[in-house]
Each structure stands twice: as C-alpha cells, then as structure tokens.
C-alpha cells in the first residue's frame, strides 16, 4: 500500500493543494450564494424581459456540464478579452455554476414564506428591506438549509473537476504525485477515501447546522406538513 | 466570434454528441440494473446485504465522479481485466448512477402503500413475484420523473469521461479547439448541443409522465 515516506515527501504539496481546494470551495460557495440570492430577488421584480434573461441563464447553467462551462471561461475567455488565471477561473466558474442552483433553492424558499407574514409586516409599516431582513430571510433560512447544505456538498465534489483546467488543488497535486511516483492506484484510492470523508464531514456539519437553525420549529403531528416557523417566544 | 468555425466543426460535434448519448444511455441502463438489485437486496436481503448496500451507496454518492472514474480505469488492469477506456467509463457511470437510482427506488417503494404487498401475500404470491409484479412496477411509475432527472445528470456527468480519452462531445471539442485555436466558438457550440439534448430529454420526461398518469 501507500509508502509512508511518500507522504512525508509530498505532504507539503498535498497540504497546499488541500488549501486551494478549500479556498475554491469556500469562495465558490460564497459567490454562488450571493449571486443566486441576487438573481432570486431580481426575478421578483415585475420586469418581464429581466425575468426571461434570468430564467435563460439558470436553464443554460443547469443544462450544460460544469466542465464545458469551465473550458468556456478559461480557454474561451481570452477571445473576448477575459484573461483569468486558472484558480480565479475555477473560483468564478464554481460560483457561476452554483449561482443557478442556489437561485432556484432560494426561489423555492422565498415562495414558501407564508404571504400573510409579509402582508402583516407591510401593514405594520415595515420597509421592504426590513421585511426582507427580519421576516423573509429568517423564514427562508429554515426551509432552505437542507438543500443549501446538499448543494455545498455537491460543490465540494465539483472542486476536483478544477484539476482539469490545472487549478493546483488537491486532486491536481495528487495526480502529479501519482505521475511522479507511479503509485497511481494507491494515490487514487487514498484520494477517493479522503474525499468520501470530506463530503461526509460537510454533510454532517450541515445536519448539525440544520438542527440548530430549525430548533424553533414545532412539529404538531408526524403527518403535519405545515412547516411554519414558530418561535418559542 | 466567427460562426463559420462552428459550421465547419458541427458535423464532428454532432457525431461526438451521438457517442455522448449512447454512452450515457448505456450508463443509465447499467445504473438501473444495479440500482434495482441493490435496492431489493437492501430491503429484503437481511442485515449484511443492507449494510453492504449502504456502504456502496454512500461511497458512490460521496466520492467525486472523476475520482471514481480514474479508480475504475486504473483498477481494472490491476486485477487483470484490460478494458478499453470506453468500457471503464460506462462501468463508472453505471456504478455511480446505480447508487442514486437505488435511493430513488427506495423512496418510490416507500410511496407504494403497504396494503399492496400485504394483499399480494394474502393472495399467495411468492416473494419474488411480489417484487416483479406488484412492487417494482408501481415503484417504477412513481420514480419516472426522478429517473429522467438522473438521465440528464448523467449526460452532463459524461463530459468527465473525456479525461480518460473517450472521444465524446467534450473530448472532441477539446481536440477541435486545440487545432483551430477557436475554443470560444467550439465550446459554445458544444454547450448548445448539450443544452439541446437535455431539453429534449426533459420534454421526453414530461411526455412519459403524462402518459403514465393516463394509464
């Protein structure tokens, strides 16, 4: 199996690669969520062409492979004057890819907020910004945490695709190591186990977060599917 | 932007798209078989089968597809099976898909009323035909939307098999854009073809769903 001296030799490179993986993942998730939230909000405006454009954007991103999007951004970008470094392109690509999915998640969450709550807030004289901040977003948080965590786990797995456009993240460093040591199979097996743990850890953390955010939910009956957030006051 | 580039490359891209489609279809077919077997084994095969199935599902859903693909690609020769990249790719897509499909069926089986299998048992159906004649057909009908979705996901995921050198749509676009230095146009065209295939699949899914609701 894996020669331990190899780990000592390649340890720093692998650690650096892991750092890049986490950086790409974190930044990609952040960009994806911010952009997705903005898209969701813009979609609520009563401007038809804007809605069509956003809808088309979401459909295109969700209907094409992530790898093609990356190639388009990284190799196709320079043709329109967009010269990006591999890591920047990777982060941007992950963010754009995630934004379409996050926009849909947020939209579902937005629609799940009971209308009466928004109307009540309006009749109390709250501004739209205040309603968004104090009524809609807290309620959305509760219903959208599970799909958000799921999406973040998916993006964790997508970071390995960045190695194809030579982003020096963990997968890339491991492939370099495999190529230099000829311990290809062991390296890939180790990598599989590592990512298995990583994705599992992200899901675990997500479940804990979910438990924390939904701790005010009251479950009236096992069948009661009315998921209204009721604060324990 | 030069559209003539796209027009010149289009026949090659279409040919490669056909490869993408049938590789994905074979992958989904394999995934169906594995998914059903794993699902049935987990439900009726005792604790060990359930645990083994659980590990399988967790592994293939937790590990990135690219790594699974490389693992299978490099593992098969090690145990003496020398297969072309195409076969390794289909095996990887099928194994990955099987994990998701078995979960889709598990969800669908939960939606089949308990009374159905109890009634079949009371009528004296043997265990195997309860599965093949009562439970699985109903589970299949319930899971059609999820299965079409799975096909779309797999078609997009099949772009990754370009890494092991299978000349499907992504790989072919790479080759073409490397020779004519027009990556923007070529990848745009490839993206549009993917989009068109996925659109057609989604439409097909809606039709099948409507059809099954009538029956």
UniProtKB/TrEMBL annotation, chain A:
It is found in: Cell inner membrane; Cell membrane. The chain crosses the membrane at residues 20-42, 54-74, 86-106, 135-156, 176-198. InterPro entries: AA_ABC_transptr_permease_3TM, ArtM/GltK/GlnP/TcyL/YhdX-like, MetI-like, MetI-like_sf. Residues 18-206 form the ABC transmembrane type-1 domain. It comes from the Bacteria. It is a multi-pass membrane protein. Keywords: Amino-acid transport, Cell membrane, Membrane, Transmembrane, Transmembrane helix, Transport. It holds the Pfam family BPD_transp_1. Gene3D superfamilies: MetI-like. Belongs to the binding-protein-dependent transport system permease family. HisMQ subfamily. This is ABC transporter permease subunit.
TrEMBL record, chain B:
Keywords: Amino-acid transport, Cell membrane, Membrane, Transmembrane, Transmembrane helix, Transport. The chain crosses the membrane at residues 12-41, 53-76, 186-208. It is a multi-pass membrane protein. Residues 17-205 form the ABC transmembrane type-1 domain. Its main location: membrane. SUPFAM superfamilies: MetI-like. It is found in: Cell inner membrane; Cell membrane. Signal peptide: none annotated. Pfam families: BPD_transp_1. It comes from the Bacteria. InterPro entries: AA_ABC_transptr_permease_3TM (IPR010065), ArtM/GltK/GlnP/TcyL/YhdX-like (IPR043429), MetI-like (IPR000515), MetI-like_sf (IPR035906). Belongs to the binding-protein-dependent transport system permease family. HisMQ subfamily. NCBIfam families: HEQRo_perm_3TM (TIGR01726). Part of the binding-protein-dependent transport system for glutamine; probably responsible for the translocation of the substrate across the membrane. This is ABC transporter permease subunit.
């Amino acid at each position: 199996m894996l020669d331990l001296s190899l780990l000592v030799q390649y340890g720093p490179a692998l650690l650096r690669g892991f750092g890049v993986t986490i950086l790409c993942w974190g930044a990609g998730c952040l960009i994806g969520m911010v952009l997705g939230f903005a898209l969701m909000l813009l979609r609520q405006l009563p401007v038809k062409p804007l809605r069509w454009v956003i809808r088309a954007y979401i459909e295109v991103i969700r209907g094409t492979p992530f790898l093609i999007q990356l190639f388009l951004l990284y190799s196709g970008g320079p043709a329109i004057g967009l010269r990006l470094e591999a890591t920047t392109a990777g982060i941007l690509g992950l963010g754009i890819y995630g934004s379409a999915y996050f926009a849909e998640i947020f939209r579902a969450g937005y629609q799940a907020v009971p209308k009466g709550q928004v109307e009540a807030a309006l009749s109390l004289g709250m501004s739209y910004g205040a309603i968004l901040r104090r009524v809609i977003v807290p309620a959305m948080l509760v219903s959208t945490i599970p799909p958000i965590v799921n999406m973040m786990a998916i993006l964790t797995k997508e970071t390995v695709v960045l190695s194809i456009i030579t982003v020096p993240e963990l997968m890339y460093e491991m492939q370099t190591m495999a190529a230099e040591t000829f311990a290809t199979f062991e390296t890939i097996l180790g990598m599989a186990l590592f990512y298995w743990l990583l994705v599992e850890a992200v899901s675990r953390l997500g479940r804990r977060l979910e438990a924390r955010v939904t701790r005010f939910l009251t479950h009236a009956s096992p069948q009661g599917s009315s998921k209204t957030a009721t604060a324990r006051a | 932007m030069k559209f003539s580039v796209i027009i010149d490359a289009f026949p090659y891209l279409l040919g490669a798209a056909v490869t993408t489609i049938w590789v994905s279809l074979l992958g989904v077919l394999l995934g169906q078989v594995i998914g059903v077997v794993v699902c049935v084994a987990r439900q009726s095969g005792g604790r060990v089968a359930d645990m083994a199935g659980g590990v399988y599902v967790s592994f293939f859903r937790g590990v990135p597809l690219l790594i699974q693909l490389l693992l299978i690609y490099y593992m098969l020769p090690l145990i003496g099976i020398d297969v072309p990249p195409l076969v390794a790719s289909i095996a990887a897509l099928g194994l990955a898909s099987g994990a998701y499909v078995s979960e889709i069926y598990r969800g669908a089986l939960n939606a089949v009323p308990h009374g159905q299998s109890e009634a079949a048992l009371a009528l004296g159906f043997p265990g195997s035909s309860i599965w093949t004649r009562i439970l699985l057909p109903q589970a299949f009908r319930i899971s059609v939307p999820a299965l079409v979705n799975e096909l779309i996901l797999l078609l997009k995921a099949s772009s990754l098999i370009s890494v092991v050198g299978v000349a499907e749509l992504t790989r072919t676009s790479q080759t073409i854009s490397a020779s004519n230095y027009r990556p923007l146009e070529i990848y745009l065209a490839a993206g549009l073809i993917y989009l068109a295939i996925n659109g057609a699949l989604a439409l097909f899914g809606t039709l099948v769903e409507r059809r099954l609701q009538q029956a």
